[in-house]
Write a structure and sequence with these properties.
The protein has 515 residues and is mostly helical. It is built from 21 helices and two strands. The chain has a two-stranded antiparallel sheet. A hairpin with a 4-residue loop joins strand 1 and strand 2. The protein is globular and about 70 Å long.
Length: 515
């Protein structure tokens, strides 16, 4: 039986997913796909640069222009900026810096002991929803879920005797598929609000949008995502994985024998240090004139130094307690042991670094060509021309956003393109910017988990390969496709029901806009 593509029973759905997996796994390595996609973008940019388009780029107010990337100047610029393009690729720094701290916590045994103690108090039946809920909350710490929650979910499922890929799938669904849901306000809220307000002011210069205009809906959506993800993980995904053997190198995974007294003491000491650090952080951020706040005084604004320091804080909040634990229990004897732990952590990221190199080059080419902007704007114009009923228009916006998300992964970049079209268009149909933004959040989330162009998608493939060596793009897409479809359909229906019942979307939010 071929590893990673085991025959699975499951009726029509099982056969469909098996077909997707087999077809997907015949694709080249993700790094090669990004390389080929970049070359394709070069060719398309040369072709479409010959045409003039009437679509207006909302960022410039001028007709959109496709830039030819095969000119001498463009190719020279590509070579000159290649290193900078790679090193400035945002997910690369986020992953590597966070993993340096997590590596110390992991190899010292701090995470191992913490998981042992957590498993003792978590009922086995509630493991899946607990993982998904934690994954959703991790949005508050920007990309922490990708580098922390998803791999730990695989470890926890494996320790509980369940298939680790099911744990990874559940966490990935919560972190990325449920990206627009969260009952804890985060930097995403003011980020989206800023684009929504500027777009709404095209029609109404005096309008003001509350940064938490979708908070109530996002909070309610958290429960929906947990319930849907729980059912899919336990009833669809894990049964399908039952015959997939675990053949990866699991020797370095945490062991889950009983934690000894010394380990428990070390863990409590390390946690006390972590809590003390959080208290100090709270005290530093509390004053109205704190340097950790944005100029507006807001802590959750993306421009606030606190929000920009999330990844370094993750590093410190794992590195320091990990070091304290390691030296207390004896897994670290000298400082070099700690550095060795960080080196081992980086060693496990080698494959991701290679993929990130080609991914960064592709995304840069796609952005520079303006093909992504053209795709988004033309699609939105088609939807506008249809002049559909309000509810149907909202559904169309959700699914158009989900489609565009397959090509333009950044939530803010996508809303910067679509917002100035969607928001004014729907305001003229008496639909409020608050509702339009809520629809965007739904569409922006569901297709994250099935597009290899999402920057963290290759990283999740690497997590899976730790357990099942032959895991490929097709394996992950087939595993996540049920989540994507059910989330999009279920969440869309939930928004329509929420709208029909008249529940408030958020603070100072409405469903209608009066011209």
């Amino acid at each position: 039986m071929e590893t990673g593509t085991a025959t699975r029973e499951g009726g029509l759905l099982g056969k469909f997913l098996n077909g997707i997996e087999k077809a997907g796994n015949k694709l080249p390595d993700p790094a090669v796909i990004f390389l080929l996609a970049m070359v394709l973008i070069w060719g398309l940019s040369a072709l479409f640069s010959r045409f003039e388009f009437s679509a207006i780029d909302p960022r410039t107010g001028e007709a959109i222009v496709v830039h030819n990337l095969l000119t001498g100047d463009a190719l020279a610029g590509f070579l000159a900026n290649m290193v900078k393009t790679f090193t400035s690729f945002a997910p690369l720094g986020v992953v590597l810096v966070a993993m340096l701290g997590v590596g110390v916590a992991e190899h010292s045994g701090f995470i191992n002991t913490g998981l042992k103690m957590m498993l003792k108090v978590t009922p086995a039946k509630l493991l899946t929803p607990s993982i998904i809920l934690i994954a959703i909350v991790s949005h508050t710490a920007t990309d922490a879920g990708y580098v922390l929650v998803i791999p730990l979910a695989g470890v926890i499922f494996y320790a509980m005797g369940r298939h680790p890929l099911a744990g990874i799938a559940a966490a990935f669904a919560g972190v990325s598929g449920g990206f627009g849901a969260n009952f804890v306000p985060s930097g995403l809220d003011p980020l989206l609000q800023s684009f929504t307000q500027s777009a709404a002011q095209i029609i109404d210069p005096e309008i003001a949008i509350n940064p938490l205009n979708n908070w109530f809906f996002a909070s309610a959506s958290s429960l929906l995502i947990v319930l849907l993800g729980w059912y899919l993980t336990d009833k669809v995904i894990e049964p399908r994985l039952a015959n997939t053997p675990i053949d990866g190198d699991t020797s370095n995974l945490p062991r889950f024998d009983e934690a000894g007294p010394r380990e428990k003491q070390g863990f409590l000491l390390a946690v006390a240090v972590m809590v003390a650090g959080l208290v100090l952080l709270y005290m530093a951020a509390s004053p109205a004139d704190s340097p950790l706040r944005a100029k507006s005084g807001n802590l959750s604004d993306f421009s606030a130094p606190l929000m920009q320091s999330i990844v370094p804080l993750i590093f410190l909040l794992f590195w320091i307690p990990g070091a304290v634990y390691g030296f207390y229990v004896g897994t670290f004897k000298k400082s070099k042991d700690m550095i060795d732990a960080m080196s081992k952590s980086m060693g496990s990221m080698a494959y991701y670094i290679v993929m990130a190199f080609f991914c960064a080059l592709f995304i840069a080419a796609f952005s520079q060509s303006n093909l992504g902007a053209l795709l988004a704007i033309e699609g939105a114009e088609v939807l506008k021309a249809l002049a559909l009923p309000s509810a149907v228009t909202i559904v169309g916006i959700i699914f158009l956003t989900a489609f565009v998300n397959l090509f333009v992964g950044s939530s803010s970049a996508k809303w910067a393109l679509l917002g100035p079209i969607f928001v004014p268009m729907l305001m003229q149909l008496n639909i409020s910017p608050d509702l339009t933004q809520a629809a965007y959040r739904v569409g922006d989330s569901g297709s994250n988990i099935i597009t290899p162009l999402m920057p963290y998608f290759p990283l999740v493939v690497v997590y899976c390969q730790k357990y099942v060596k032959n895991t490929g793009i097709g394996t992950l897409i087939a595993m996540m496709l049920p989540f994507s479809v059910v989330f999009l359909v279920g969440w869309t229906a939930f928004l329509l029901l929420y709208w029909t019942l008249g529940f408030p979307l958020g603070l100072q939010a409405s469903y209608t806009y009066g011209l």
